[in-house]
């Protein structure tokens, strides 16, 4: 048996980021940025007001109070979007809206609430009374306060979240160079597979794996190139694999990789240079990986996951997520640490297989008292059995039970991988 780390490093060897493409920024969510992006515009792009009120010279209102208001003449109105065309001179003010450009001469804004003018829509007043002083710069957002032109905003290799995209828009970007998102083909093997919703014939079970893998791919910002069930001969499966390799960037199979008399993935790929290993983990022991060649000579990575649904789920997290992250343009360090890890306390005990690292689907609950560790409980009373698919959706973490442990006790502290 080989370790989880050794198998992962074999899976990742040779995998590299897909080619880049330029896309409109509205279509970049979840893609990985290919170039460092510096600010093209300052933020804010011009000095503007943080309040609805009046642009003033701070010195003019230094002595203002409720009892001795300062009277100013209002010389202009500056709604958001307008470019002011006159200066604020001593004894005057200009009405200004939040986000509107500060007129020349002014150095502070008096919010409307600190004047005799009621808030809301009104005719432009001829004069105002100011009830409180404002210091220079008060309620003014200066040009470049947030970032100056040229400041680094998002670096290459970053997965583009909504917030990252909005930052890039705010500094002047309308399109971005990103890595192409991985297109993945999913092939489930097994004579026993029934269509979702179909009443299974005796000895058959619903194919839940293709739905699981396709959904996990979408959750990982990938494109699902094709999904197929192949219950056929090794020759048919090999043809389907070659076909998938012609257009997909990664091929994932489920089932047919252990020690059975009909392990079709092993048979179909015999002589094709695919490596089958026993990985010291549970679930997910039998694994295969390698490059599969299409008829047109295109060679793409392939992951052969075991058929048991929980094994598929766990193997996807441990091996598919990292290689997908690499293909999508995240660096090796990010790809190998794709999940957050933390410590948690068990609330019940369970058995674990000695000699294999158990990755048990668990429900993690945050502690009520600040500083306490979160608690975990297996999502199924039978623990990490690889067929326990119907409770899988309750898992939000995988508990890591070390190879040398064969029994977990209540209140043990374990590392967990957050999902
Ligand atoms: N003699 C041995 N037998 C097994 C070993 C072993 O080392 N020696 N390993 C066991 C382990 S561990 C696993 S995991 C499984 C993996 O088997 P395969 O990858 O060959 O998968 P299958 O035999 O095709 O299926 C296993 C299981 O999963 C169900 N399955 C398969 N595909 C689907 C699907 N698309 N949707 C839902 N469920 C699926 C299938 O019906 C089987 O119950 O091998 C052990 N055996
Ligand atoms: O590796 Mo298997 O997934 O333990 O059942």
List its traits:
single chain, 419 residues, alpha/beta, Molybdenum Cofactor Biosythetic Enzyme, Chain A, Molybdopterin biosynthesis moea protein, domain 2, Molybdopterin biosynthesis moeA protein, domain 3, 4 domains, 6-stranded mixed beta sheet, 5-stranded mixed beta sheet, 7 helices, elongated, binds ligand LQZAQKY5, binds molybdate ion
Largest sheet: 6 strands, mixed
Which small compounds were modeled alongside the protein?
ligand LQZAQKY5, molybdate ion
Q: How much is the average pLDDT? A: 94
**Major sheet strand order:** 15-12-16-20-19-17
The total count of strands amounts to: 27
C-alpha end-to-end distance: 26 Å
CATH architecture of the largest domain: 3-Layer(aba) Sandwich
The CATH topology of the largest domain is Molybdenum Cofactor Biosythetic Enzyme, Chain A
Q: Domain count, please report it.
A: 4
Q: Mind telling me the C-alpha Rg?
A: 31 Å
